[in-house]
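Milestone 3.1: sequence recovery, worked example.
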């Protein structure tokens, strides 16, 4: 089901209302939605996929309007049912007439939702929209949640019958794609999907919503979350952009694996470091992709120079693998999906307690924790208590005196022995019946 209409009639508000969560950015400024946005919706006993689209505008001020219109065309072509929205407060406008004419030619069921009918007087005024020659207009109010039951009851009857759904649907591997504006995030998604799913432009800030895209790769369901470019706080002036950055941050928190996209043609910035630090503090599995690698002149030292520089720049992500890609040519882009699967498996690993304690014994035999004053920490027992991220609990005495360099020694050997590539490792301590948290490495 695709929601279409001119800008600022309430399409994204209705999308969020039906999806029962705030997915699309809603703002008074016309043209906020640019890319297609999808949500799986359950209404009563029926399930369907809902598509939010950008505004169809014949007198645009948005420089991306041609690309937005292409996204709307694709959504209309994909849909079985079209929900055409207008604004009752504006009355019948020329733009609405043009959209209505276009939708009539689709030969698909079109339902006319007249939004902002917040009271009986406005509901009665909806009869003016019979002029479009579509179905009977349905007066609704997204802000008041009025009229939706009647609209949805009739609309769902036009959806094709769905086959019985399986009792359990495989969970998608959620990947948040983050980085500075114009690093190539949307281009990468288009290359992976083999279609122009996202609007791509050299103008920073083209992507505004956090757009969720589901697909399968090697029979594994993935969900890619393309986020708005994250700028320095001093650059985030508009309320709209603040909202999109907040959604990018939330996408990192909700992801299974985060892709940090860097631009090989630009120096890493302070904002890249801030993003990397946020990923590490959230305990997220991660993959660093250096995009636009095809534009770099190379010699036998180029690869090592880039790799060493990145790990020096992001010491908090030394556990993270790097991949050098080109979203333009597709160079190594599929490798990112394979590596993400491996990283997710690593983060899901649970090590048997006897194996951990054998490792702890071996490490203590080679190198005891250093003495602090009159006391030397004694580590007696280790067990794994969590995955995602892999989290370990060590029992002992005077564990509050463990130094950072010794904890790094433990973490590095846990990783060397059991893997966990791309996943952070956390260590907690219990001494005298109390917990003490170690670092994340």
């Amino acid at each position: 089901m695709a929601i279409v209409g001119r800008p600022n009639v309430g399409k994204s508000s209705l999308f969020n209302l039906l999806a029962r969560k705030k997915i699309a950015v809603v703002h008074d400024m016309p043209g906020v939605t640019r890319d297609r946005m999808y949500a799986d919706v359950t209404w009563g006993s029926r399930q369907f996929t809902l598509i939010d689209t950008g505004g169809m505008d014949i007198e645009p001020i948005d420089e991306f309007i041609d690309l937005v219109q292409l996204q709307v065309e694709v959504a209309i072509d994909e849909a079985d049912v079209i929900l055409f929205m207008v604004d009752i407060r504006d009355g019948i406008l020329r733009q609405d007439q043009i959209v209505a004419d276009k939708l009539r030619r689709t030969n698909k069921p079109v339902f006319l939702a007249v939004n902002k009918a917040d009271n009986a007087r406005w509901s009665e005024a909806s009869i003016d929209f019979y002029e479009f020659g579509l179905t009977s207009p349905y007066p609704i109010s997204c802000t008041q949640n009025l009229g939706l039951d009647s609209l949805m009851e009739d609309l769902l009857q036009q959806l094709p019958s769905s086959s019985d759904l399986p009792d359990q649907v495989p969970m998608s591997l959620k990947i948040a794609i983050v980085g500075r504006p114009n690093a190539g995030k949307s281009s990468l998604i288009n290359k992976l999907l083999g279609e122009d799913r996202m609007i791509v432009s050299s103008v920073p800030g083209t992507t505004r919503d956090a757009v969720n895209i589901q697909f399968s790769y090697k029979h594994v369901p993935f969900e890619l979350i393309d986020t708005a470019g994250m700028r320095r706080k001093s650059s985030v002036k508009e309320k709209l952009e603040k909202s999109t950055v907040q959604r990018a941050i939330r996408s990192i928190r909700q992801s299974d694996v985060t892709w940090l996209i860097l631009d090989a043609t630009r120096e890493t910035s302070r904002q890249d470091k801030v993003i990397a630090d946020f990923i590490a503090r959230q305990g997220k599995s991660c993959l660093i992709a250096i995009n636009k690698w095809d534009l770099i002149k190379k010699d036998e030292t180029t690869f090592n120079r880039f790799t060493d520089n990145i790990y020096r720049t992001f010491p908090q992500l030394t556990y993270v693998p790097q991949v050098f890609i080109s979203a333009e040519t597709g160079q190594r882009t599929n490798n990112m999906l394979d590596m993400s699967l491996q990283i997710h498996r690593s983060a899901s690993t649970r090590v048997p307690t006897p194996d951990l304690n054998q490792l702890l014994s071996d490490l203590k035999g080679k190198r005891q924790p250093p003495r602090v004053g009159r006391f030397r920490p004694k580590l007696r027992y280790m067990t794994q208590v969590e995955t995602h991220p892999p989290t370990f609990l060590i029992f002992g005495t005077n564990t509050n005196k463990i130094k950072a360099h010794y904890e790094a020694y433990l973490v590095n050997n846990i990783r060397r022995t059991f893997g966990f590539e791309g996943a952070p490792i956390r260590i907690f301590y219990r001494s005298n019946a109390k917990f003490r948290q170690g670092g994340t490495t």
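DSSP finds twelve helices and 16 strands in the chain. The mean pLDDT is 79.
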